[in-house]
Amino acid sequence: MQISEVAKEFGLTTDTLRYYEREGLIGPISKGENGIRNYTEEDIKRIQFVKCMRAAGLEISFLKRYLQLFEGGDKTVKERREILVEQRKILKEKLDAMQEAYNRLNYKIDLYDKNILDKKLM
Amino acid sequence: MQISEVAKEFGLTTDTLRYYEREGLIGPISKGENGIRNYTEEDIKRIQFVKCMRAAGLEISFLKRYLQLFEGGDKTVKERREILVEQRKILKEKLDAMQEAYNRLNYKIDLYDKNILDKKLM
DNA sequence: ATATCACTTAGAGTTTACTTTAAGTCAATA
DNA sequence: TATTGACTTAAAGTAAACTCTAAGTGATAT
Fold first, then answer.
1. CA-to-CA distance for A4 and A14, rounded, in angstroms?
2. Any chain B CB within 8 A of the CB of A37?
3. A116 at the B interface (CB within 8 A)?
4. Calculated CA dihedral for residues A119, B1, B5, B11, nearest 10 degrees
5. What is the pLDDT of residue A53?
6. Rounded (10°) CA dihedral B108, A59, A5, A2
7. B76 Cβ partners below 8 Å, 6+ apart?
8. Which of A58, A85, B15, B121 is the most buried (most CB within 10 A)?
9. Which positions ≥6 away from A26 have C-beta within 8 Å?
């Protein structure tokens, strides 16, 4: 699979895919004789994982570290678990903050819908 | 209330509070003869709103626009509602993406806990 | 054959949201 | 009196994550 197809499939730009590769999040992607990247199914799965985690706001540096540990095999399992737990905690806190803001927006919109033009911000 | 107290109460730095003011998200905060900011209850409420929305990832530019409309009074109600709805949509999409990542992390951690050392990323 | 298009690289530039710096005022304490 | 600490300003600097530019290769369409 060529870079533009992968980009299209995931809604990323080719620049971003090359950037992720440079940063060590994916690949190195193997290239044909022409020097053109050819993404395997394994590569695709990894991009899927990265995209999911990036969409949730997990940092490149964390993903890089995690994926490098993954390459390291079974002896890295303990550390891998630790950093996943750490990231889950960070994510949970963000989720809660976002849920609060979401509820607040809902409440406010509801007031507008009911034509309650209060002077309060919230 | 002085800037350092406000900063402490909200877990922001004084730099950030002055930055928000510069950007027109809050204030202008009235100052005593000495030129020192004195935050009113109204200011505090606004900071609370801004903090909540920023924690959820809403952009400074949006908050600025919304709060300026707010200053504009009742004639801005329609537009205010519109941009709240727009932001809610963006927020909902982020929330869903984050929930998905959260579930995925949970699942993965669960596998580690069960000592299922699979070779798959996810 | 020439133009267009997808790909390649290294490296510079951009955006957002702060954060730090430098230089200063003012009040209180050692 | 000297220094410590909180405040002030304008402006420069930083970090993260892209995003774009310039210069080039190679295959296909007119």
1. 6
2. no
3. no
4. 10
5. 98
6. -90
7. B69, B70
8. A58
9. A17, A20, A43, A46, A47, A50, A67
In the block, residue with structure tokens 């984050």: B98
**A chain contacts of residue B56, beta-carbon cutoff 8 Å:** 97-98, 100-102
Cα(A104)–Cα(A36) distance, integer angstroms: 49
Do A28 and A63 contact (CB within 8 A), yes or no? Answer: no
**pLDDT tens readout for residues A38-79:** 999 999 999 999 999 999 999 999 999 999 999 898 899 999
Alpha carbon A54 to chain centroid, angstroms: 2
Tokens 């999911």 -> residue = A52
d(CA B119, CA B115): 12
Q: How far is A13 from chain B (nearest CA, A)?
A: 19
Chain A to chain B Cβ contacts (< 8 Å): 110
The per-residue pLDDT for range B93-121, each reduced to its tens digit, is 999 999 999 999 999 999 999 877 666 76
For chain A, the residue count is 122
Which residues have C-beta within 8 Å of that of residue A75, sequence separation ≥ 6? none
Q: What is the pTM of this model?
A: 0.91
Nucleotide nearest to B4 in CA–C1' terms? D6
